[in-house]
């Protein structure tokens, strides 16, 4: 005897594996957010800042750090380091 196909929407347990998947995935996503995404965002914000004479971060939007990194001297050093 062959089983009849049933509609999954009629079965309340049909969606539970999806919920359990998110429950099991949540700790890893939280860890990823706290220890990877947030620090990279902070690093991106700080990359556009400058420092004063005492070494404190001054939150003014500047491209100086990126101009310094893409200077031909630093690009040559970076190229040698990568190779």
Structural notes for this entry:
There is one protein chain. The chain is mainly alpha-helical and 83 residues long. The protein folds into 2 domains: 47 residues, no CATH class; 34 residues, no CATH class. It is 59% helix and 5% strand. It has 3 helices and 2 strands, in the order αββαα. The protein has a two-stranded antiparallel ribbon with strand order 1-2. Strand 1 and strand 2 form a beta hairpin. The longest helix is centred in the middle third of the chain and has 32 residues. It is elongated. The mean pLDDT is 87.
Number of domains: 2
What coarse outline follows from CA principal-axis ratios?
Answer: elongated
Q: Give the oligomer, counting copies of the same chain as homo and different chains as hetero.
A: single chain
Rounded mean pLDDT score: 87
H and E string: HEEHH
Unreliable segments of 5+ consecutive residues? none
List how many beta strands DSSP finds: 2
Q: Output the strand order for the largest sheet.
A: 1-2
Summed up, the helix count is 3
Radius of gyration computed on alpha carbons: 26 Å
| Helix amount | 55-70%
Structural class call reads mainly alpha
Please outline the major beta sheet: 2 strands, antiparallel
End-to-end span in angstroms?
67 Å
Strand content: under 5%
